[in-house]
Specification:
The complex is a heterodimer of chains A (416) and B (540).
Chain A: H1 2-17, E1 22-30, E2 36-45, E3 48-53, E4 63-66, E5 71-74, E6 76-81, H2 111-118, E7 121-126, E8 134-137, E9 139-142, H3 149-152, E10 160-164, H4 167-172, H5 182-203, H6 222-232, E11 236-241, H7 244-257, E12 261-266, H8 274-280, E13 283-286, H9 304-311, E14 315-317, H10 328-338, H11 343-348, H12 352-358, E15 375-378, E16 389-394, E17 397-401, H13 402-411
Parallel strand pairs in A: 1-4, 1-5, 6-7, 10-11, 11-12, 12-13, 13-14
Antiparallel strand pairs in A: 1-2, 2-3, 5-15, 7-9, 8-10, 15-16, 16-17
Helix pairs in contact in A: 5-6, 5-7
Chain B: H1 2-22, E1 26-35, E2 41-50, E3 53-59, E4 70-81, E5 83-88, H2 132-140, E6 143-148, E7 155-163, H3 169-172, E8 173-182, H4 195-218, H5 231-242, E9 246-249, H6 253-266, E10 270-274, E11 289-293, H7 302-306, H8 320-329, E12 333-337, H9 343-355, H10 360-365, H11 369-374, E13 392-395, E14 406-411, E15 414-417, H12 420-423, E16 434-442, E17 445-456, E18 459-466, E19 469-479, E20 482-491, E21 494-505, E22 508-514, E23 520-527
Parallel strand pairs in B: 1-4, 5-6, 8-9, 9-10, 10-11, 11-12
Antiparallel strand pairs in B: 1-2, 2-3, 4-13, 6-7, 7-8, 13-14, 14-15, 16-17, 16-23, 17-18, 18-19, 19-20, 20-21, 21-22, 22-23
Helix pairs in contact in B: 4-5, 4-6, 8-9
The chains are: A alpha/beta (416), B alpha+beta (540).
Chain lengths: 416, 540
């Protein structure tokens, strides 16, 4: 009896001491495994979602926020963007530059991070540009505004490599250099992969006699070593592409060399190859209804999403660094109309689906016990243009609070 | 014949002052307080300078048996070791333009290293460009030593330490090939166009240098397998293996992090040269660092972007408090002026740091003893002590107090006397306050300037202005009818000291202006509203 009291006492003490507990009370919680839960509490502890339930008991003194009439959704993930980078996003001078790593250039001071937070975005996949067939590696960030680059980089996410097909890599050389055709783009990629394979063979020549390492000495080529990682499956491809034909070409190349394409970016003609995409397990990261801004961006219909959705292709919506980053939830709302999705399915296009494409679905992208406490709170239907994001939480910490910010603004402490 | 003789005479006359300076004089400076690195002063001290070096420093009687060529009464002034500019891109000719090299048509053709801006064989010591005017300007600010670094590409060559004694490299170089400069420079069109590619370029260079060495060891008989001649890789390998110094200037947090990443990946250590944003970077207290003292916000920080929109406006100075705290936490951080030759704002910033709680000793050591040790020249400079070079300066009050003035600067025993000018002044013959029209007649043609003067006793201040812009008068005085004005202006891309000296007579000034390497020119100045002949301009 005494021991029990002691244990309870210790537990209470521990809970009291744990300053990072936060309870969100009476919210409408959008979960993907249990549906929409009305009047439900969320207990956040140590950066995780600790408990989901009604009338959760907590130690006295725990910080509480009343979310009566508000909706809690998983933190929004922007699947394709170029924010928070400094020092160039396109190594356009050469065709094959997988050595370039956007993780080197993370700029935690970019105001776009804050703009994203105001729209409920908690995670972004910030990418190399599309000027060359094999671009650089991309990086996944949690938008911990005010933190350092190291704190923002999400190391649990799958590392991705940017490739690009079509007009952009063709155009980058002004038509004078390889590649200036779509065939050329594929040829450049194929050449690079063949070189990477040959490099692997050369480097593995066994040592002879007293000489250590390969003999004759081989120069290390850091660029080809990154391509080797791709061939080994340590990296996956996110490929910029608009047309169906060239996408199929890359799928064939992936089969030939055994690398993984995780998703096609933009792919406006995806509905034409829905079967192939579904069979190869390749997702798409697209705009909801933005097209015809250049030649290859034509032949699109937002209603194609319905077909893709029915075939089981993972659809993620992205901002591509435009002001859409503040209203991705409205983009998701459009999926109800174009793709005939239910509310939860539509919500997945900006949460669970991009999480799958980034390999973070095991801890982010949905509200489940044990998952990271990355949440966005809306003052109404989270898919409606009439709603606003009022609270953005990353790993249990509030990074955006609309009420507090407006108060600061009104009091004159912060100038707008 | 007559002309040759005259030219010869002129040459001898020009060389004369140099020749007198080079004789090994023994000079006694008495009645001064000598700064000690611990922060105290050696009161009522005497310094014996023997030629280029300091022979003796102490209180009381100097060693007997010395015969002084000159005795200087310091008048209770304060003596500090000559300041060291630990990072200067000035004092050099422009390096070879790599952009002039032909570009290959195919993107896949890797250009030669030099064309990509990797020039480890470039040496600042071979590109020196010194002028007496510049040296005098540095001396005026108390600077006697500069560390000059090469500009250019991503691996731009080796730096040198100069003691500002003369105008030839042989006179000035203390040490050559001190640091190898790595710069996060990216191109617009050629590799590297992103910062991340620069990091890769550096790491790949290390691999290339290693391969070059492996090939040398392997000694193949087959000539096709023998390594190619690559002296640049050999030089780099030297730096990689011996851990000789690397120096990386970083402009913002992103670059700072990238430089740190390179150090971890390559297992090298580098001295970072950082700007004011450094207080937000994770710098270990034991890390060597050069801080370019400047309180303007770095252009990418959110303070600059989200606060008031500073981008287009004049620089607004921020975070002296944070930098002061940083300096106290990081005892190995040296200081340097923000831009080459920008000594004025440095002093202002030093005083600001002092106000925020950094001691005078810490600040002066950060400009003298610490950079001397960092650059490996602490046997020569960095302290006022016997055996060191006689490079120091004398002020009328403690240096970092408001309105302190540098009276004299010694650079390796050569004296620059800035006090004499005021002492020997005669009362001014006129008050020149007002607007003047200046006409300069030079080889380059005739051009006109407006001059606004304000006179206070012997001192003149004001500015020149023309269609090209304005330049402030750095120093101006009138003694009797003699008028002298100096100002500095960027002419043809290089900072040039313009020294006007004139006689005043009948309400006009007439004299010469020396323009550094651009030679001399004649000038006249008349009060605004009069034409060149002294007649009032007629209204048309």
């Amino acid at each position: 009896m005494k021991t029990g009291a002691l244990i309870i006492g210790l537990l209470v003490l521990a809970a009291g001491l744990n300053g990072r507990d936060l309870v969100l009370r009476h919210g409408t919680v959008y979960t993907f495994d249990r549906g929409v839960l009305a009047d439900t509490d969320l207990l956040l502890r140590d950066g995780r979602i600790f408990r989901i339930g009604k009338d959760l008991k907590t130690a006295s003194g725990t910080e509480e926020i009343d979310l009566q009439g508000k909706a809690v959704i998983p933190g929004i993930i922007d699947s394709h963007t170029h924010i928070a980078l400094l020092g160039g996003i396109n190594e356009a001078a050469e065709n094959v530059t997988p050595e370039v790593d956007m993780a080197d250039q993370v700029n935690p001071d970019d105001p776009s991070i804050f703009y994203c937070l105001t729209g409920g975005v908690t995670m972004v996949h910030t990418m190399h540009g599309s000027a060359n067939p094999i671009g650089g590696r991309n990086v996944t960030l949690k938008l911990k505004w005010g933190g350092s680059a190291e704190e923002m980089i999400e190391n649990r996410a799958t590392r991705t490599l940017k490739m690009a097909l079509g007009e952009n890599p063709k155009r980058a050389g002004g038509g004078k250099t390889l590649p200036s055709t779509r065939m050329g783009v594929t040829a450049v990629i194929r050449d690079a992969l063949i070189e990477a394979r040959a490099y692997a063979r050369k480097r593995s020549v066994p040592a002879r006699g007293k000489v250590r390492g390969p003999y004759p000495p081989q120069a290390r080529n850091l660029r080809l070593e990154v391509l080797q990682q791709l061939l080994k499956g340590e990296l996956v491809v996110r490929c910029h592409s608009y047309r169906a034909d060239e996408s199929l070409q890359l799928i064939r190349l992936a089969k030939e060399f055994g690398f993984t394409i995780r998703a096609f970016e933009h792919l406006h003609q995806a509905y034409r190859i829905a079967d192939e995409l579904a069979a190869a397990g390749i997702g798409i990261s697209v705009f909801a209804d933005n097209w015809n801004y250049k030649t290859e961006a034509s032949e699109f219909t937002p209603f194609g999403m319905e077909l893709l959705h029915r075939k089981g292709v993972v659809i993620a919506l992205n901002s591509d660094t435009s002001e859409i980053m503040r209203r991705l939830y409205m983009e998701a709302g459009k999926m109800r109309r174009y793709a005939g999705m239910s509310d939860l399915e539509a919500l997945k296009t900006i949460t669970l689906n991009p999480a799958r494409l980034l390999g973070v679905e095991g801890f982010a992208g949905s509200i489940r016990e044990g998952f990271d406490a990355d949440l966005a709170v809306f003052d109404g239907d989270p898919l409606s243009g009439a709603s606003k994001c009022v609270l953005t939480i990353i790993e249990g910490r509030i990074y955006f609070n609309r009420e507090k910010d407006s108060r600061l603004k009104e009091s004159g402490e912060v100038k707008s | 014949m007559k002309r040759t003789f005259l030219a010869l005479l002129a040459a001898v006359w020009l060389l004369l002052p140099c020749a007198t300076d080079l004789t090994a004089d023994i000079v006694l400076i008495k009645n001064v307080s000598v700064f000690q690195p611990e922060g105290n002063y050696l009161r009522d001290a005497r310094i014996v300078v023997d030629g280029r070096k300091i022979r003796w420093v102490g209180q009381g009687q100097e060693p007997s048996g010395l015969c002084f060529d000159k005795v200087i009464d310091g008048g209770g002034g304060f003596v500090y070791p000559g300041l060291i500019d630990a990072f200067s891109s000035g004092w050099q000719k422009k390096s070879v333009d790599e952009k002039a090299a032909p570009k290959p048509h195919d993107k896949e053709v890797r250009k030669s290293r030099a064309e990509r801006g990797i020039t480890p064989l470039a040496r600042s010591v071979e590109h020196l460009k010194l002028s007496q005017g510049e040296i005098r300007k540095a001396a005026r600010a108390g600077f006697t030593v500069v560390h000059v670094v090469p500009g250019g590409g991503t691996c731009s060559g080796t730096s040198a330490v100069l003691s500002l004694t003369g105008t030839t490299a042989a006179d000035t170089v203390l040490v050559a090939d001190v640091f190898m400069l790595l710069r996060l420079n990216r191109n617009r069109r050629d590799y590297p166009t992103t910062l991340s590619s620069v990091l890769y370029e550096w790491l790949q260079l290390q691999e290339d240098a290693r391969f070059h060495r492996d090939m040398a060891k392997a000694q193949f008989r087959d000539i096709r397998l023998r390594r190619r001649y690559a002296p640049d890789l050999e030089r780099l390998d030297e730096y990689f293996r011996a851990g000789r110094g690397w120096m990386i200037p970083v402009d913002n947090l992103v670059e700072h992090r990238l430089a740190g990443k390179w150090m971890r990946k390559s297992r090298q250590t580098a001295v970072l040269v950082a700007g004011p944003e450094v207080w937000r970077s994770p710098v270990k207290p034991g890390e060597n660092l050069v801080l370019r003292l400047d309180f303007s916000p770095d252009p990418v920080s959110r303070y600059a972007q989200l606060g008031e929109k500073l981008a287009g406006k004049a620089k607004k100075e921020v975070y002296p408090r944070e930098l002061a705290a940083f300096l106290l936490d990081h005892p190995r951080t040296c200081l340097a002026p923000a831009d080459a030759g920008d000594f004025k704002s440095l002093l202002k910033n030093l005083r600001r740091l002092k106000k925020n709680g950094v001691s005078e000793a810490r600040l002066i050591n950060a400009l003298t003893r610490m950079p001397a040790a960092l650059l490996g020249v602490d046997d020569y400079v960095g302290a006022v002590a016997p055996g060191r070079l006689a490079s120091f300066f004398v002020t009328d009050k403690p240096f970092l107090e408001e309105k302190s003035r540098i009276l004299r600067t010694f650079i390796e025993g050569r004296e620059y006397d800035f006090s004499v000018e005021d002492k020997s002044s005669k009362p001014p013959a006129a008050n020149l306050t007002g607007a003047w029209k200046v006409t300069v007649t030079s080889r380059m043609g005739v051009f006109e300037l407006q001059l606004t003067l304000e006179q206070e006793g012997n001192r003149l201040s004001g500015r020149f202005s023309s269609a090209m812009g304005t330049m402030d008068i750095d120093e101006g005085r009138m003694s009797g009818t003699e008028v002298s004005l100096t100002a500095s202006a960027p002419i043809g891309g290089q900072d040039t000291v313009l020294a006007f000296s004139a006689q005043w007579a009948d309400g006009r000034m007439k004299g010469t202006v020396s323009m550094g390497t651009f030679g001399e020119a004649m000038f006249t100045a008349v009060p605004e509203g009069q034409d060149n002949n002294g007649q009032a301009e007629e209204a048309i």
